[in-house]
Design brief:
single chain, 183 residues, mainly alpha, two-stranded antiparallel sheet, 79% helix, rod-shaped
């Protein structure tokens, strides 16, 4: 996680804790609040009792600071929410693009098997592919997948290296073999 995101989270937690502390301070008995405010305060004249009501004169700068903190907390909350929502959306889109790329690769493998694989296997004397034939089949499957894939799926296919594509093709072929053995 980036440092600024951690700082925003810490600031939000501090603001929540301060808000709860301030709320807890408000729940104290009135006499305790008056006694504390008038006892050796910097501004002892700022607290008065008028017809049974406590009147506390809060400096203007304090109100401005509290409003500023509230505004910053709102911005931090909005930014954090927007950031997390964007991160989640990006993750979902990336997962879908990878699934599309794998699906295109699977279709490419199946088409390559149908067009080339079956005939090459029948033509082979031992019924197995040579290493050169396997490489040609992989290249054809990748080429077919890139023709089928579109948008983000195609971008993902282009970013995957030959080793990763070869591993994915090997997994697809193993699955095909397992299905063929079952039936």
């Amino acid at each position: 996680m980036k440092r600024w995101a951690i700082a925003a989270l810490v600031a939000a937690v501090v603001l929540v804790v301060l808000g709860r502390w301030a709320h807890a301070q408000e729940a104290r008995p009135v006499a305790e609040v008056v006694a504390e405010a008038t006892a050796e305060s910097e501004t002892p004249a700022s607290v008065a009792v008028d017809d049974g009501k406590i009147v506390i004169d809060i400096p203007v700068w304090w109100n401005a600071m509290v409003e500023g903190v509230h505004a910053l907390a709102g911005l931090a909350w909005k930014f954090a929410f927007t950031f997390l929502a964007g991160l989640l959306l990006t993750r979902i889109q990336d997962t879908k693009a990878r699934a599309d790329a794998k699906e295109a690769l699977e279709i490419g493998v199946n088409q390559t098997w149908e067009t080339l694989g079956k005939s090459w296997k029948k033509a082979a004397s031992d019924g197995k592919f040579s290493p050169e034939e396997r490489e040609k089949l992989k290249a054809e499957a990748i080429k077919g997948a890139k023709q089928i894939a579109t948008g983000p799926g195609l971008k993902i296919l282009k970013t995957w290296g030959q080793e990763q594509l070869a591993a994915l093709i090997a997994n697809i072929v193993e699955k095909r073999k397992a299905v063929a053995k079952k039936s």
